[in-house]
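Predict the 3D structure for this chain.
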Amino acid sequence: MGYLDNHPDENGYFGKFGGAYLPPELENEFKKIKQAYLNIRNNHEYINELRRIRKHYQGRPTPVYYAKNLSAMTGGNIYLKREDLNHTGAHKLNHCMAEVLLAKHMGKQKVIAETGAGQHGVALATAAAYFGLECEIHMGEVDIAKEKPNVIRMKILGANVVPVSFGAKTLKEAVDSAFESYLSDPESSIYAIGSVVGPDPFPQMVRDFQSIVGIESKEQFFEMTGNQPDNVVACVGGGSNALGIFSAFIDDENVALHAVEPMGKGTKLGEHAASLTYGSEGVLHGFNSIMLKTEQGEPAPVYSVASGLDYPSVGPEHAHLKDIGRLTAGTADDAQSMEAFFTLSRKEGIIPALESAHAVAYAMELAKQRPHESILVNLSGRGDKDIDFVTEKYGFGE
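Done. Predicted structure below.
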Protein backbone atom coordinates (compact mmCIF):
# COMPACT_ATOMS: atom_id res chain seq x y z
CA MET A 1 0.00 0.00 0.00
CA GLY A 2 1.39 3.36 -1.02
CA TYR A 3 0.94 6.83 0.42
CA LEU A 4 -2.17 7.63 -1.64
CA ASP A 5 -3.94 4.50 -0.38
CA ASN A 6 -3.64 5.70 3.22
CA HIS A 7 -4.22 9.44 2.84
CA PRO A 8 -6.59 10.84 3.82
CA ASP A 9 -7.95 8.67 6.63
CA GLU A 10 -11.66 7.77 6.84
CA ASN A 11 -12.44 11.14 8.47
CA GLY A 12 -10.69 13.14 5.77
CA TYR A 13 -7.50 13.92 7.68
CA PHE A 14 -3.94 14.05 6.38
CA GLY A 15 -2.14 13.65 9.70
CA LYS A 16 -3.64 16.45 11.82
CA PHE A 17 -4.75 18.51 8.81
CA GLY A 18 -8.03 18.36 6.87
CA GLY A 19 -11.38 17.22 8.23
CA ALA A 20 -14.80 18.79 7.70
CA TYR A 21 -15.75 21.78 9.86
CA LEU A 22 -19.26 22.46 8.64
CA PRO A 23 -22.46 24.18 9.72
CA PRO A 24 -25.04 21.54 10.74
CA GLU A 25 -27.21 22.19 7.69
CA LEU A 26 -24.37 21.14 5.36
CA GLU A 27 -23.09 18.05 7.21
CA ASN A 28 -25.53 15.68 5.55
CA GLU A 29 -24.97 17.16 2.08
CA PHE A 30 -21.21 16.68 2.33
CA LYS A 31 -21.74 13.10 3.50
CA LYS A 32 -23.82 12.53 0.37
CA ILE A 33 -21.06 14.01 -1.81
CA LYS A 34 -18.45 11.79 -0.16
CA GLN A 35 -20.58 8.68 -0.52
CA ALA A 36 -21.29 9.48 -4.18
CA TYR A 37 -17.58 9.99 -4.85
CA LEU A 38 -16.57 6.76 -3.11
CA ASN A 39 -19.24 4.96 -5.14
CA ILE A 40 -18.15 6.27 -8.55
CA ARG A 41 -14.35 6.47 -8.17
CA ASN A 42 -14.00 2.80 -9.16
CA ASN A 43 -17.10 2.67 -11.36
CA HIS A 44 -16.22 1.37 -14.83
CA GLU A 45 -18.75 3.53 -16.67
CA TYR A 46 -17.74 6.74 -14.83
CA ILE A 47 -14.03 6.11 -15.40
CA ASN A 48 -14.56 5.28 -19.08
CA GLU A 49 -16.58 8.43 -19.68
CA LEU A 50 -13.95 10.55 -17.93
CA ARG A 51 -11.16 8.94 -19.98
CA ARG A 52 -13.08 9.56 -23.20
CA ILE A 53 -13.62 13.23 -22.26
CA ARG A 54 -9.97 13.71 -21.38
CA LYS A 55 -8.75 12.22 -24.64
CA HIS A 56 -11.28 13.51 -27.16
CA TYR A 57 -12.44 16.78 -25.55
CA GLN A 58 -9.63 18.05 -23.33
CA GLY A 59 -6.80 16.92 -25.60
CA ARG A 60 -4.94 14.82 -23.05
CA PRO A 61 -2.26 13.74 -22.59
CA THR A 62 -0.52 17.11 -22.55
CA PRO A 63 3.19 16.86 -23.42
CA VAL A 64 6.32 17.17 -21.32
CA TYR A 65 8.73 19.53 -23.09
CA TYR A 66 12.47 20.00 -22.57
CA ALA A 67 12.96 23.77 -22.36
CA LYS A 68 16.33 23.79 -24.11
CA ASN A 69 16.75 27.57 -24.38
CA LEU A 70 15.77 28.19 -20.75
CA SER A 71 18.02 25.32 -19.70
CA ALA A 72 20.94 26.73 -21.66
CA MET A 73 20.40 30.18 -20.13
CA THR A 74 20.33 28.87 -16.53
CA GLY A 75 22.91 26.10 -16.96
CA GLY A 76 20.43 23.46 -15.79
CA ASN A 77 17.91 20.97 -17.16
CA ILE A 78 14.35 22.28 -17.06
CA TYR A 79 11.34 20.35 -18.33
CA LEU A 80 7.77 21.68 -18.53
CA LYS A 81 4.56 19.70 -18.12
CA ARG A 82 2.42 21.63 -20.59
CA GLU A 83 -0.92 22.00 -18.79
CA ASP A 84 -1.25 25.30 -20.64
CA LEU A 85 -2.18 23.10 -23.64
CA ASN A 86 -5.09 21.47 -21.80
CA HIS A 87 -8.46 22.70 -23.14
CA THR A 88 -9.37 26.12 -21.59
CA GLY A 89 -5.67 26.79 -20.97
CA ALA A 90 -4.96 25.36 -17.54
CA HIS A 91 -5.06 22.27 -15.33
CA LYS A 92 -8.42 23.26 -13.81
CA LEU A 93 -10.55 21.40 -16.38
CA ASN A 94 -9.11 18.09 -15.10
CA HIS A 95 -11.16 18.27 -11.92
CA CYS A 96 -14.01 20.43 -13.24
CA MET A 97 -15.14 17.87 -15.84
CA ALA A 98 -14.97 15.17 -13.16
CA GLU A 99 -16.80 17.27 -10.55
CA VAL A 100 -19.63 18.22 -12.91
CA LEU A 101 -19.91 14.59 -14.07
CA LEU A 102 -20.26 13.70 -10.36
CA ALA A 103 -22.88 16.45 -9.91
CA LYS A 104 -24.86 15.05 -12.84
CA HIS A 105 -24.55 11.56 -11.36
CA MET A 106 -26.05 12.96 -8.11
CA GLY A 107 -28.96 14.61 -9.95
CA LYS A 108 -27.85 18.20 -9.31
CA GLN A 109 -29.07 21.00 -11.58
CA LYS A 110 -26.56 23.72 -10.69
CA VAL A 111 -22.85 24.10 -9.94
CA ILE A 112 -21.51 26.96 -7.81
CA ALA A 113 -17.89 27.98 -7.40
CA GLU A 114 -15.40 30.69 -6.56
CA THR A 115 -12.58 31.79 -8.81
CA GLY A 116 -9.49 33.96 -8.39
CA ALA A 117 -7.59 34.10 -11.65
CA GLY A 118 -10.72 32.97 -13.49
CA GLN A 119 -9.30 29.66 -14.75
CA HIS A 120 -11.42 27.56 -12.40
CA GLY A 121 -14.44 29.66 -13.35
CA VAL A 122 -13.81 29.19 -17.05
CA ALA A 123 -13.21 25.46 -16.60
CA LEU A 124 -16.37 24.99 -14.54
CA ALA A 125 -18.44 27.05 -17.00
CA THR A 126 -17.04 24.87 -19.79
CA ALA A 127 -17.94 21.66 -17.95
CA ALA A 128 -21.40 22.99 -17.09
CA ALA A 129 -22.02 23.84 -20.75
CA TYR A 130 -20.82 20.36 -21.78
CA PHE A 131 -23.13 18.57 -19.32
CA GLY A 132 -26.05 21.02 -19.53
CA LEU A 133 -26.03 22.33 -15.95
CA GLU A 134 -26.55 25.86 -14.65
CA CYS A 135 -23.34 27.58 -13.51
CA GLU A 136 -22.77 30.38 -10.97
CA ILE A 137 -19.28 31.82 -10.43
CA HIS A 138 -18.34 34.17 -7.57
CA MET A 139 -15.35 36.43 -8.22
CA GLY A 140 -13.85 39.34 -6.30
CA GLU A 141 -14.14 42.75 -7.94
CA VAL A 142 -10.36 43.22 -7.81
CA ASP A 143 -9.87 39.98 -9.76
CA ILE A 144 -12.68 40.83 -12.19
CA ALA A 145 -10.75 43.97 -13.12
CA LYS A 146 -7.43 42.09 -13.42
CA GLU A 147 -8.72 39.08 -15.31
CA LYS A 148 -11.17 40.61 -17.79
CA PRO A 149 -10.52 38.08 -20.61
CA ASN A 150 -11.57 35.20 -18.34
CA VAL A 151 -14.67 37.08 -17.15
CA ILE A 152 -15.72 37.49 -20.77
CA ARG A 153 -15.08 33.81 -21.47
CA MET A 154 -17.22 32.74 -18.49
CA LYS A 155 -20.11 34.89 -19.66
CA ILE A 156 -19.84 33.63 -23.25
CA LEU A 157 -19.97 30.08 -21.88
CA GLY A 158 -23.25 30.92 -20.16
CA ALA A 159 -22.13 31.32 -16.54
CA ASN A 160 -23.65 33.85 -14.15
CA VAL A 161 -20.64 35.80 -12.81
CA VAL A 162 -21.40 37.23 -9.35
CA PRO A 163 -19.12 40.19 -8.37
CA VAL A 164 -17.94 40.09 -4.73
CA SER A 165 -17.62 43.58 -3.30
CA PHE A 166 -16.82 43.05 0.41
CA GLY A 167 -13.51 42.73 2.27
CA ALA A 168 -10.41 42.62 0.07
CA LYS A 169 -12.63 41.68 -2.92
CA THR A 170 -10.34 38.80 -3.93
CA LEU A 171 -10.23 34.99 -3.63
CA LYS A 172 -11.02 34.47 0.07
CA GLU A 173 -14.12 36.67 -0.20
CA ALA A 174 -15.17 34.86 -3.39
CA VAL A 175 -15.09 31.58 -1.42
CA ASP A 176 -17.15 33.15 1.39
CA SER A 177 -19.72 34.42 -1.11
CA ALA A 178 -19.97 31.12 -2.99
CA PHE A 179 -20.47 29.20 0.28
CA GLU A 180 -23.32 31.56 1.23
CA SER A 181 -25.01 30.93 -2.11
CA TYR A 182 -24.58 27.17 -1.76
CA LEU A 183 -26.06 27.27 1.76
CA SER A 184 -29.29 28.69 0.35
CA ASP A 185 -29.95 25.62 -1.84
CA PRO A 186 -27.64 22.65 -1.17
CA GLU A 187 -30.08 20.01 -2.40
CA SER A 188 -30.29 21.02 -6.06
CA SER A 189 -26.79 22.51 -6.33
CA ILE A 190 -23.21 21.47 -5.56
CA TYR A 191 -20.28 23.66 -4.57
CA ALA A 192 -17.53 22.63 -6.99
CA ILE A 193 -14.48 23.66 -4.95
CA GLY A 194 -11.64 24.88 -7.15
CA SER A 195 -8.62 23.45 -5.37
CA VAL A 196 -7.42 20.83 -2.87
CA VAL A 197 -9.05 22.85 -0.08
CA GLY A 198 -12.40 22.91 1.70
CA PRO A 199 -14.12 20.26 3.82
CA ASP A 200 -13.63 16.53 3.23
CA PRO A 201 -13.99 14.99 0.63
CA PHE A 202 -12.87 17.86 -1.64
CA PRO A 203 -9.11 17.82 -0.86
CA GLN A 204 -9.02 14.12 -1.77
CA MET A 205 -11.41 14.38 -4.72
CA VAL A 206 -9.61 17.25 -6.40
CA ARG A 207 -6.22 15.59 -5.81
CA ASP A 208 -7.46 12.35 -7.32
CA PHE A 209 -8.99 14.12 -10.33
CA GLN A 210 -5.76 16.10 -10.86
CA SER A 211 -3.52 13.03 -10.42
CA ILE A 212 -3.72 12.47 -14.18
CA VAL A 213 -1.06 15.21 -14.46
CA GLY A 214 1.36 13.22 -12.32
CA ILE A 215 0.55 9.88 -13.94
CA GLU A 216 1.24 11.29 -17.42
CA SER A 217 4.34 13.21 -16.30
CA LYS A 218 5.99 10.20 -14.71
CA GLU A 219 5.51 8.04 -17.82
CA GLN A 220 6.52 10.81 -20.23
CA PHE A 221 9.62 11.86 -18.29
CA PHE A 222 10.83 8.27 -18.06
CA GLU A 223 10.21 7.77 -21.77
CA MET A 224 12.26 10.91 -22.54
CA THR A 225 15.16 10.33 -20.15
CA GLY A 226 15.07 6.79 -18.77
CA ASN A 227 15.00 8.30 -15.28
CA GLN A 228 12.80 10.05 -12.78
CA PRO A 229 13.15 13.81 -12.33
CA ASP A 230 15.39 14.91 -9.47
CA ASN A 231 13.04 17.79 -8.68
CA VAL A 232 9.34 18.46 -9.28
CA VAL A 233 8.27 22.11 -8.98
CA ALA A 234 4.79 23.65 -8.89
CA CYS A 235 3.18 26.88 -7.71
CA VAL A 236 0.86 26.68 -4.71
CA GLY A 237 -2.11 28.83 -3.77
CA GLY A 238 -4.66 26.23 -2.69
CA GLY A 239 -2.44 23.70 -4.41
CA SER A 240 -4.40 21.62 -6.94
CA ASN A 241 -1.89 21.73 -9.78
CA ALA A 242 0.93 20.95 -7.35
CA LEU A 243 -0.74 17.91 -5.79
CA GLY A 244 -1.76 16.78 -9.25
CA ILE A 245 1.86 16.40 -10.29
CA PHE A 246 3.31 15.62 -6.83
CA SER A 247 0.91 12.70 -6.29
CA ALA A 248 2.78 10.41 -8.68
CA PHE A 249 6.12 11.01 -6.94
CA ILE A 250 5.28 11.11 -3.20
CA ASP A 251 6.44 7.52 -2.67
CA ASP A 252 9.67 8.17 -4.62
CA GLU A 253 11.88 9.63 -1.92
CA ASN A 254 14.68 10.38 -4.37
CA VAL A 255 12.42 12.94 -6.08
CA ALA A 256 12.38 16.32 -4.29
CA LEU A 257 9.01 18.11 -4.25
CA HIS A 258 9.02 21.93 -4.27
CA ALA A 259 5.85 23.94 -3.52
CA VAL A 260 6.37 27.54 -4.66
CA GLU A 261 4.38 30.19 -2.80
CA PRO A 262 3.87 33.86 -3.71
CA MET A 263 6.16 36.21 -1.77
CA GLY A 264 4.45 39.18 -3.40
CA LYS A 265 5.94 42.53 -2.36
CA GLY A 266 7.67 41.59 0.89
CA THR A 267 7.73 39.56 4.11
CA LYS A 268 5.28 41.66 6.14
CA LEU A 269 1.77 40.34 6.77
CA GLY A 270 -0.46 41.53 3.93
CA GLU A 271 2.40 41.75 1.40
CA HIS A 272 2.46 38.06 0.44
CA ALA A 273 0.42 34.83 0.49
CA ALA A 274 3.10 32.38 1.63
CA SER A 275 1.09 30.39 4.17
CA LEU A 276 3.33 27.29 4.30
CA THR A 277 6.33 29.54 4.88
CA TYR A 278 4.89 31.99 7.42
CA GLY A 279 1.56 30.51 8.58
CA SER A 280 0.38 28.52 11.58
CA GLU A 281 -2.32 25.93 12.16
CA GLY A 282 -5.89 27.14 11.83
CA VAL A 283 -9.37 26.42 10.45
CA LEU A 284 -10.68 28.29 7.39
CA HIS A 285 -13.47 27.45 4.94
CA GLY A 286 -14.26 24.16 6.64
CA PHE A 287 -10.81 22.55 6.93
CA ASN A 288 -7.81 22.61 9.26
CA SER A 289 -4.48 23.54 7.67
CA ILE A 290 -1.70 26.10 7.77
CA MET A 291 -2.92 29.67 7.37
CA LEU A 292 -1.80 33.26 7.66
CA LYS A 293 -3.42 34.93 10.67
CA THR A 294 -3.68 38.35 12.25
CA GLU A 295 -2.77 38.87 15.92
CA GLN A 296 -6.46 38.27 16.68
CA GLY A 297 -6.30 34.86 14.97
CA GLU A 298 -8.41 35.92 12.00
CA PRO A 299 -7.44 35.15 8.37
CA ALA A 300 -4.82 37.72 7.41
CA PRO A 301 -4.99 39.93 4.34
CA VAL A 302 -2.90 38.45 1.54
CA TYR A 303 -1.45 39.68 -1.74
CA SER A 304 0.04 38.31 -4.94
CA VAL A 305 0.37 39.63 -8.46
CA ALA A 306 -1.21 36.29 -9.43
CA SER A 307 -4.92 36.25 -8.59
CA GLY A 308 -5.00 32.47 -8.33
CA LEU A 309 -2.42 32.40 -5.53
CA ASP A 310 -3.66 35.07 -3.10
CA TYR A 311 -5.32 32.77 -0.58
CA PRO A 312 -4.54 32.88 3.19
CA SER A 313 -4.39 29.10 3.61
CA VAL A 314 -3.25 26.04 1.65
CA GLY A 315 -4.55 22.54 0.97
CA PRO A 316 -4.32 20.33 4.09
CA GLU A 317 -2.31 17.68 2.27
CA HIS A 318 0.39 20.22 1.46
CA ALA A 319 0.50 21.14 5.15
CA HIS A 320 0.87 17.45 6.02
CA LEU A 321 3.57 16.78 3.41
CA LYS A 322 5.57 19.73 4.74
CA ASP A 323 4.98 18.54 8.32
CA ILE A 324 6.46 15.11 7.59
CA GLY A 325 9.39 16.57 5.66
CA ARG A 326 8.31 15.30 2.23
CA LEU A 327 7.80 18.73 0.69
CA THR A 328 9.97 21.84 0.53
CA ALA A 329 8.17 25.18 0.61
CA GLY A 330 9.88 27.76 -1.58
CA THR A 331 8.91 31.24 -2.69
CA ALA A 332 9.05 33.60 -5.66
CA ASP A 333 8.13 37.27 -5.40
CA ASP A 334 6.35 39.50 -7.90
CA ALA A 335 9.54 40.80 -9.48
CA GLN A 336 11.05 37.34 -9.95
CA SER A 337 7.79 36.00 -11.36
CA MET A 338 7.40 38.86 -13.82
CA GLU A 339 10.98 38.32 -15.00
CA ALA A 340 10.21 34.61 -15.48
CA PHE A 341 6.98 35.52 -17.34
CA PHE A 342 8.88 37.53 -19.95
CA THR A 343 11.91 35.20 -20.03
CA LEU A 344 9.86 32.10 -20.81
CA SER A 345 7.87 34.05 -23.40
CA ARG A 346 11.00 35.21 -25.22
CA LYS A 347 13.26 32.20 -24.75
CA GLU A 348 10.71 29.47 -25.47
CA GLY A 349 7.75 31.17 -27.16
CA ILE A 350 5.47 30.14 -24.26
CA ILE A 351 3.50 32.83 -22.40
CA PRO A 352 2.79 31.40 -18.93
CA ALA A 353 0.03 32.26 -16.49
CA LEU A 354 1.31 34.54 -13.72
CA GLU A 355 0.64 31.70 -11.27
CA SER A 356 2.82 29.32 -13.30
CA ALA A 357 5.49 32.01 -13.67
CA HIS A 358 6.15 31.68 -9.93
CA ALA A 359 7.13 28.02 -10.46
CA VAL A 360 9.26 28.93 -13.49
CA ALA A 361 11.05 31.65 -11.49
CA TYR A 362 11.86 29.20 -8.70
CA ALA A 363 12.99 26.55 -11.20
CA MET A 364 15.34 29.02 -12.89
CA GLU A 365 17.09 29.70 -9.56
CA LEU A 366 17.11 26.00 -8.68
CA ALA A 367 18.72 25.19 -12.05
CA LYS A 368 21.59 27.58 -11.28
CA GLN A 369 22.11 25.95 -7.87
CA ARG A 370 21.79 22.34 -9.13
CA PRO A 371 23.05 22.33 -12.71
CA HIS A 372 23.44 18.55 -12.90
CA GLU A 373 19.91 17.75 -11.69
CA SER A 374 16.70 17.58 -13.71
CA ILE A 375 13.78 19.85 -12.87
CA LEU A 376 10.20 19.11 -13.94
CA VAL A 377 7.91 22.14 -13.67
CA ASN A 378 4.14 21.94 -13.81
CA LEU A 379 3.35 24.78 -16.22
CA SER A 380 -0.17 24.93 -14.86
CA GLY A 381 -1.65 27.48 -17.23
CA ARG A 382 -1.15 29.87 -20.12
CA GLY A 383 -0.98 33.63 -19.82
CA ASP A 384 -3.66 34.79 -22.25
CA LYS A 385 -5.79 35.87 -19.28
CA ASP A 386 -2.96 38.02 -17.88
CA ILE A 387 -1.68 39.93 -20.88
CA ASP A 388 -3.93 42.99 -20.50
CA PHE A 389 -3.02 43.38 -16.82
CA VAL A 390 0.69 42.72 -17.44
CA THR A 391 1.09 45.18 -20.30
CA GLU A 392 -0.87 47.89 -18.50
CA LYS A 393 1.23 47.57 -15.33
CA TYR A 394 4.60 46.35 -16.60
CA GLY A 395 4.65 47.26 -20.29
CA PHE A 396 6.46 44.68 -22.39
CA GLY A 397 9.20 43.94 -19.89
CA GLU A 398 11.80 46.05 -21.64
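Residues 3-54+93-199 form a domain with the Rossmann fold fold (CATH 3.40.50.1100).
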